[in-house]
Specification:
This protein has 444 residues and is α+β, with helices and mostly antiparallel strands. It is built from four helices and twelve strands. 62% of the residues lie in helices and 15% in strands.
Length: 444
């Protein structure tokens, strides 16, 4: 007899015997253990704290929780099967008990039958004794008749001396006949009774033996079923122990992962606090730096304004007076005739060839040289961070290291270097930074 249901497993639903289901459950148990043992659990939280690590822990915990749910389901199924098996065993025990009672009654009936059999055997013995006695009596009378020379009953009647003697002899002959007939009839009855008793004896014994054998067969069959259920329960209990251990292992694994995740989250929170503090400090430092830069810029602007005012106050027009001048190119980005963009570092003052070039203000000549782009150029440091540059000149009248006065001629306008027409390229530098020269010039 099979117990309904199967041990729960993914893709493992079908018609199985008890042992097949248990073996299948153990195979799934081994697979589950391998899955749990294969889980990658970090031994320590890495220094790089990322949300991906939290997701990894969440995935691992979710996987272990799935194993826990699976183990809970298997344990629940095992308990159901155990309950059903115990209930069936109780039914088998009740049936076996009833069968035992039935066998006891059969044994008692057999004992009663045995008593009847014994009584019949005694009756048979008595009947045989009576038959033997009757046979002996008949044989004895026949022997006596033979010894009397085979007396003919008719002759006896005919030899009667008188009517009374005849009647007397007739009664004797009739009595002898009746006696013989009674003996024969008695023997026949005894024989029939003997045959009936012997037939009853055989039938009763055979019936009792068959009935006991049938009851013993039923008891043995039910006992076999009961033993099978007990073996099935034993396998279920072993499986339950295994799954209970597996559930405990998965629970510990889940707790371990949860503890590690909690520790990681604490460290992550601490790292976030540290990063927030660093961010606040960086913002404060950036604000301080911005304020310092703004102050420095303001100071530089003030200084530049002062320098500009001072320069304008002491400066002179860098070209010969009375010469027609126009601005051919201003400071900053510009588009060249070839269509390319270019950053112009100064201002171009277009004028006739040979126009005299004067020093913007007094100062020391830092450079007086030829450059492939500037051509002949002169760089003068006026002090206080102010410097001016003069390019594309036809010649240079000062040398590096010379001190020049404001308005002193340093060269003439030419066409040297990279240029397309006669003009003076004029640059202004404040603390080494290029700036628009136009505000520093007092155009005539």
């Amino acid at each position: 007899m099979e117990t309904g249901g199967t041990i729960r497993g993914k893709g493992m639903i079908g018609s199985m015997t008890q042992k097949n289901r248990i073996r299948s459950g153990k195979r799934w148990t081994a697979v589950l253990l391998a899955c749990v043992m294969a889980l990658s659990v970090p031994s320590a939280i890495s220094a790089g704290l990322t949300d991906a690590t939290v997701q990894s822990y969440d995935d691992q915990i979710a996987a272990v929780e799935e194993k826990l749910k699976y183990a809970e389901g298997v344990l629940s199924d095992i308990q159901k099967y155990q309950a059903a098996a115990y209930e069936e065993i109780a039914q088998y025990d009740a049936v076996i008990e009833l069968n035992n009672q039935l066998r006891q009654l059969a044994e008692e009936q057999l004992n009663g039958t045995q008593w009847q059999i014994c009584d019949k055997q005694q009756s048979i013995e008595r009947t045989k004794a009576k038959m033997e006695h009757q046979q002996n009596v008949l044989l004895e009378r026949m022997r006596e008749s033979y010894m009397e020379a085979k007396v003919d009953y008719i002759e006896v009647l005919l030899t009667a001396e008188s009517l009374f003697d005849f009647l007397k002899k007739l009664d004797y002959v009739d009595a002898m006949f009746r006696y013989d007939q009674q003996i024969i009839t008695s023997l026949a009855e005894y024989q029939a009774q003997l045959e009936a008793d012997e037939a009853f004896l055989v039938t009763a014994e055979q019936t009792q033996v068959e009935q006991l054998a049938k009851i013993d067969g039923i008891i043995e069959y039910n006992q076999t079923l009961c033993d099978q259920k007990l073996a099935y329960i034993e396998d279920l209990e072993k499986n339950e122990v295994w799954w209970t251990q597996e559930y405990s292992y998965a629970s510990q694994e889940e707790q371990k992962l949860s503890n590690e995740l909690e520790a990681y989250l604490k460290e992550l929170e601490a790292e976030k606090i540290r990063q927030e503090q660093e961010r606040i400090l960086a913002e404060q430092q950036a604000a301080a730096d911005a304020a310092a830069r703004e102050a420095a810029l303001l100071a530089a602007q003030q200084s530049a304004a002062q320098q500009k005012e001072a320069a304008l106050a002491t400066s002179c027009w860098p070209l010969e007076a009375g010469v027609t001048v126009r601005v051919s190119s201003g400071f900053g980005n510009r588009t060249l005739w070839r269509g390319t963009m270019d950053f112009h570092r100064g201002i171009d003052l277009a004028c006739p060839s040979g126009t005299k070039v004067y020093a913007y203000s007094g100062g020391t000549v830092e450079k007086s040289a030829f450059h492939y782009s500037y051509g002949n150029y002169v760089l003068i440091d006026h002090g206080g961070g102010l410097a001016t540059l003069y390019a594309h000149m036809a010649n240079r009248l000062v040398s590096a290291g010379d001190y020049v006065e404001a308005g002193q001629q340093i060269g003439n306008v030419g066409l040297t270097g990279s240029t397309s027409g006669y003009h003076l390229h004029f640059e202004v530098r404040i603390n080494g930074e290029l700036t628009d020269p136009k505000p520093y010039l007092a155009f005539p």
